[in-house]
C-alpha cells in the first residue's frame, strides 16, 4: 500500500488542457458515452475559441453568424469589447434592412392596389352646408374663470395648468381628430 502512489498526490503533475482541442482529446478518452458528453460540454464552457490550422484561434459568434480572430483560446476583454461593438453594428444594419424592407413592401402594396375608375357626373350635386353652431352664452362660471385668469400670478402652477391642459386638448384634437378625444371621454 505504501508503495502505490495515491491519485490525489499525483495530480500535481497532471497537465490541464490549454485549449478546446486538448480538452476534447481528453474528453474523448472517457470510459462511457455519458462521461464523454459531459466532459465535452465542460470543454465548450471553458474554451470559447477554436484552434486554427495555421496557428492562432478563432471565435464564432452565432448571434452574428461570423468568426473573429482572437489571440488565445478565449477572447481577451479588449477582443470581447470589439466583438460586442461589431454586434451593435450588426444589429443596426439588421434594423435598417428591416425598415427598408417594410418600406419597400408598403410601396409595392400601394402600387398593386387597383386604381378606382373616375366617374364624371353631368349634373352637379348640391351639398347642404352645415348649420352654424349656436353661440354659447357666457355663464357665471365662465366670467369667474376669466376674472381669476386676469388676476393670476404669472408662472404659478395653478394658473398655468388650465392653459397648458387646454393646449394639450387642442393638440390632441389636431393630431388625432375629435372622434378620438370624444371616445376617450366616453369610454
Strand and helix layout:
Blueprint: H1 7-10, H2 20-28, H3 33-46, E1 50-51, E2 57-61, E3 66-70, H4 77-112, H5 140-151, H6 157-176, H7 178-186
Antiparallel strand pairs: 1-2, 2-3
Please tell me about this protein's structure:
With 187 residues, the chain is mainly α. Strands 1-2-3 form a three-stranded antiparallel sheet, with no helix packed on it. A hairpin with a 4-residue loop joins β2 and β3. α2 packs antiparallel against α3 and α6 packs across α7. The longest helix is centred in the middle third of the chain and has 36 residues. The N terminus is likely disordered.
Would you summarize the structure shown here?
With 187 residues, the protein is mainly alpha-helical. Helix content is 56%, strand content 6%.
The class by helix and strand makeup works out as: mainly alpha
- Terminal CA distance: 88 Å
Strands ordered across the widest β-sheet: 1-2-3
Helix count, DSSP H or I runs of 4 or more residues = 7
Count of beta strands: 3
Largest sheet: 3 strands, antiparallel
Q: Averaged pLDDT, please?
A: 79
Percent helix range: 55-70%
Q: Roughly how many Å is the radius of gyration? A: 38 Å
How do the SSEs run, as a string of H and E?
A: HHHEEEHHHH
Low-confidence stretches at least 5 residues in length (pLDDT < 50)?
Answer: 1-12
Shape: elongated
**Strand residue percentage:** 5-15%
For the structure shown, list the relevant keywords.
6% strand, disordered N terminus
Amino acid at each position: 500500500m505504501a508503495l502505490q502512489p495515491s491519485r490525489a498526490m499525483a495530480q500535481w503533475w497532471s497537465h490541464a488542457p490549454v485549449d478546446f482541442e486538448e480538452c476534447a482529446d481528453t474528453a474523448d478518452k472517457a470510459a462511457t458515452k455519458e462521461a464523454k458528453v459531459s466532459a465535452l460540454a465542460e470543454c465548450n464552457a471553458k474554451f470559447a475559441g477554436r484552434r486554427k490550422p495555421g496557428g492562432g484561434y478563432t471565435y464564432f459568434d452565432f448571434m452574428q453568424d461570423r468568426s473573429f480572430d482572437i489571440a488565445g483560446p478565449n477572447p481577451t476583454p479588449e477582443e470581447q469589447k470589439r466583438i460586442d461593438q461589431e454586434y451593435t453594428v450588426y444589429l443596426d444594419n439588421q434594423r435598417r434592412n428591416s425598415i427598408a424592407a417594410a418600406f419597400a413592401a408598403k410601396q409595392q402594396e400601394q402600387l398593386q392596389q387597383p386604381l378606382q375608375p373616375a366617374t364624371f357626373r353631368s349634373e352637379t350635386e348640391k351639398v347642404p352646408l352645415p348649420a352654424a353652431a349656436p353661440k354659447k352664452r357666457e355663464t357665471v362660471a365662465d366670467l369667474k374663470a376669466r376674472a381669476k385668469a386676469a388676476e393670476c400670478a404669472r408662472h404659478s402652477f395653478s394658473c398655468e395648468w388650465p392653459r397648458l391642459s387646454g393646449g394639450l386638448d387642442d393638440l390632441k384634437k389636431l393630431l388625432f381628430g375629435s372622434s378620438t378625444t370624444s371616445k376617450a371621454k366616453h369610454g
